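mind reviewing these tokens:
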Amino acid sequence: MAITLNSGFNMPIIGLGVWRMDDKDIKSLLINAINIGYRHFDCAADYQNEAEVGDALADAFKTELVKRKDLFITTKLWNSDHGHVLEACKDSLKKLQLDYLDLYLVHFPIATKHTGVGTTASALGEDGVLDIDTTISLESTWHAMEELVSLGLVRSIGISNYDIFLTRDCLAYAKVKPAVNQIETHPYFQRDSLVKFCQKHGICVTAHTPLGGAVSNTEWFGSVSCLDDPVLKGLAEKYKKTVAQIVLRWGIQRSTVVIPKSSKLERLAENFKVFDFELTKEDIDVIKSMDRNHRTNQPAKFWGIDLYA
């Protein structure tokens, strides 16, 4: 299944996120994922593993496991490169060993002190707070993103972690409309107003952290995972599926793209098996009632400032 973006290109509705994947495991994980059926991979300069992903993709192309045209590759512009969009994009392309990106996203709606293209450590001031560059507007960043489309380096461009206000502003100044807004959304953080706003205006929503972060975000941020919720466990028993499959199916039935991350082969296969059943409207309503407005991924822990405040 795929969603047709406003740019005219098709984006597979389920992908594999590569955040926090160990470098040594990436090649085998991606090759196995392709064999399972994944055709959509979500990367970012900040994940610091684009080169390893690139090696895996090159191997897949060389062995004719898959053709480039059959894959959808996303990566993202880091905060410190807002004033160096073209150089940052070319750096990602070089590491990924690709001629073009299917989708390039502004990772966060914030420009920070430039630390050099390819370096993605958060730029903190002496006070331990994110060193925000107030001379670079999101509008100028977006127009630089649009140039990438003109140059043929990127097929579609989008935004990430933008709220309704910032998304509305982007629509007002955009010559090339954002194709995607990638946001955290899952049963405990449904963000229905933002999802509906984006979809009303032709922007596809990609759900990052679609399973609520599970163990990873519990360890980093002390958050609560919806995968332990007894209601979802009950639905999993009803449909004879795993809780993760229920949650991903719910995301797909909202017409959002889901990009679960897993470093376990059995989970990769399990997460992809979500097209052989459908949740009833009644069960969709049950999940809708579970919203806690609970964000599980909070970079304020590292940045000393809550950008979502």
Observations:
- The chain has twelve helices and ten strands.
- The mean pLDDT is 94.
- The two ends are 36 Å apart (CA to CA).
- The beta strands are 2-4, 10-12, 16-17, 40-42, 72-77, 101-106, 154-160, 180-184, 204-208, 257-258.
